[in-house]
Design goal:
The protein is α+β, with helices and mostly antiparallel strands. The protein has helices spanning 79-82, 89-94, 97-104, 111-122, 180-183, 188-205; strands at residues 14-18, 31-32, 40-45, 67-77, 135-139, 145-160, 166-177. It has 6 helices and 7 strands, in the order E-E-E-E-H-H-H-H-E-E-E-H-H. The chain has a 7-stranded antiparallel beta sheet.
């Protein structure tokens, strides 16, 4: 299907890993979704004080930002690339294994980290520092650039080539938004969360609002 020259460019959603020390974008590990999912499910768990108690003075107080979780389903399909094998040698050789590997390595420590920790154990070190992963950003438009932790990754491989390389798959991805409660204000991710919250407040200010008359009221009883 051809597009008109003046038609708007459709932005892609994706995942951007940042170096945890320098905050530099790890471009070799970026994931741009081949097709934007049809839906994005979001759940906000309110962090209220005294939700289960009877301290009336705390009824309207919040401990911090809500815990926000995201879920989406994405598709990866090599059909178009396989129709032009001369221009897509990697896809011909290994199918969509590289795309799946990029997603999966988001939830793995690196082999180097594992070997380093194993060597430290062998040398008798008593305390092993947990392995640090890149700061992961979920990008869904310019308004939503969210620091997240991948909490769930499910892959269903649906078609294979003659060498059993996967060529079509569905991916179910679950993420938890990391707030300043998780990262602090000085962290790059904490700053991105604050920008996200401030944009949300700005958008709320552009809402239509309403009147009591629309609700059938002339005032609050």
């Amino acid at each position: 299907m051809s597009s008109f020259p003046g038609s708007p460019r459709i932005l892609k959603g994706g995942i951007v890993p940042l170096d945890p020390v320098t905050s530099a974008v790890l471009t070799s590990r970026m994931i741009v979704l081949q097709y934007n999912p049809d839906s994005l499910s979001r759940t906000l768990q309110v962090q209220a004080i005294g939700a289960d108690g009877h301290d009336y003075s705390e009824a309207l107080r919040l401990k911090g930002p809500p815990v926000e979780t995201l879920k989406l389903e994405a598709e990866i399909d090599a059909t178009d690339q396989l129709e032009q094998p001369d221009q897509n040698q990697a896809t011909v050789q290994v199918g969509i294994f590289p795309q799946l590997a990029l997603l999966e390595t988001l939830v793995y420590p690196t082999s180097t980290q594992l070997q380093t920790n194993n060597s430290a154990l062998d040398s008798g070190e008593l305390e092993i520092i947990p392995m640090e992963t890149p700061l992961t950003l979920f990008v869904w438009s310019q308004v939503r650039v969210l620091p997240v932790r991948i909490t769930e990754l499910s892959i269903t491989e649906e078609a294979f080539d003659v060498a059993l390389n996967p060529i079509r798959a569905k991916v179910s991805l679950g993420m938890r938004v990391l707030s300043v409660d998780d990262l602090g204000f000085a962290n790059k991710g904490g700053g991105l969360f604050m920008s996200y919250l401030q944009r949300k407040e700005q958008l709320a200010g552009r809402g239509p609002g309403g009147t009591l008359a629309q609700l059938g009221l002339t005032g609050i009883p």
